[in-house]
Amino acid sequence: MSVTSVGAKVVSPHERGFTLIEVMVAVVLAAIVAAAAFTILTTTTKAVGANEQVVDTQQDVRIAMELLSRDVKMAGFGSPGVPVGNCTYSIMPADNKPTGSDTGPDSVQLLVPTTKSTGATPWQLQGATSPNGATQIVLKAGAVSDMVASGLANGSYISINGAHTGQVTNVASASDTITVLVPAPVWFPANSPVYLLQCIRYQVVTNAAVCGSTEPCLTRGIAGVTAGPSAEAPIVEGIEDLQLAYACDGCVAAINGGNPDRVIDNQAGSAGFDQLDFISNNAWATPPLTPDKIKLVEISLVASQPRSDGGFGETLQAKIGSGTLQVSADHTLPANTNHRRRMLKKTVDTRNVGL
Question: For 64, 93, 175, 268, which has the most beta carbons within 10 A of its beta carbon?
Answer without folding.
Answer: 64
